[in-house]
Amino acid sequence: MEVIICETPEEVGRLAAAKVSRVVRDRGPEAVLGLSTGSSPLAAYADLARRIEAGELDLSRARGFALDEYVGLPPGHPESYAEVIRATVTDPLRMDPLRVSCPDGFATDTDAAARHYEEAIKAAGGIDIQILGVGENGHIGFNEPSSSLSSRTRVKTLTRTTREANSRFFETLDDVPRHCLTQGLGTIMDAREVVLMAQGSHKASAIAGLIEGPLSARCPGSVLQLHPAATVIIDRAAAAEL
Ligand code: GLP
Q: Which CDD domains match (predicted)?
């Protein structure tokens, strides 16, 4: 695992965007990107948008797979991750919406939707680079502590701490869905490359567990210690407990 400590949150985004651009250059215009919601990757998406604007990068033929989705939010719900990915990634990065997928959290059979998602990733040739943030409890995607380290895309129950952390996007805590569909830790580990970003002191303990802690389902992100091409890009505040 490569760890890069940056002076500013913007630098975190710039370095992560440079990695994604390099992967697209190496793999070709049809590269497959694993996309994450959350505030952590926003600076990277902004830098990718700047590169596209400058004509240095073209993602119009790239394929995208979102990491996770809430269960039960109807299509078009502004807090569904499908909408968040559209607003923060697909539109600004001028990706083709038909080439960007999200797990179907509104499916009547969510288990079948999870299996279908795994098959779609496989059919696309696998993910070339997975963009990740990390939750304060060490979760990646929505793989909460105790997730199997070899898990695949499936339905998970959100912990109260995650629902509380995400309640800022909803009117009340009760409005935050209780379940989600998430790529599993095994799915994430299959990506050819992983770039994880974290900024701020509230991520310091999760980052310490992820990088230096024992490999354990208690800190799901620690599984990345086994990934052959994982890069963790963080600012000084997030590095404080290393
Ligand atoms: C959410 C998402 C994760 C994200 C994490 C951190 O629960 N499911 O994919 O990485 O929380 O979010 P943020 O980047 O806003 O801190």
A: GlcN6P_deaminase
